[in-house]
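Request: Not sure, any thoughts?
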Amino acid sequence: MAIKINHQTDTISSSATVLKVKQAQGLQLPTGLTVDRPIADPGTLRYNEDTGFLEVFSANEWQSIKPKLNIHRFSFNSSLRWLVVHNMNTTRFRETLLDEAGQRFYASVNVIDQNRFEILLTQETSGYVDVIFDEANETIIYANKNT
């Protein structure tokens, strides 16, 4: 297999149908913020630092490549502490907090163990927490309000 580098067009091509990169540590992709997105050729791949996802340029726009996600919504009555209990056996999740009007807000999140975390509020609040796990085929057991 021959590798051809064209410095005038900034391209690398291979005489084979597939260009193989044999490096155990990894391949560094271009990264940037959403505002840094270039107008690109179809199939261009990059990592978006704002979204935390890989994205590909296709059909004249950037499209995120997202893993299959499990999204669960829990509702809570007015409390200073929201406790979420699940069976995902992970401390890796992303949460979005919403008040009763659907407005996003922020609060301290404390991971208790691999199946529980709490949201500590500065004032008693009713609302929702959307929890995203990227584990496939898992289910949430329950959510509980403790004051």
Summary: The chain has no helices and twelve strands. The chain has two domains: 25-66, 70-145. The chain has a mean pLDDT of 84.
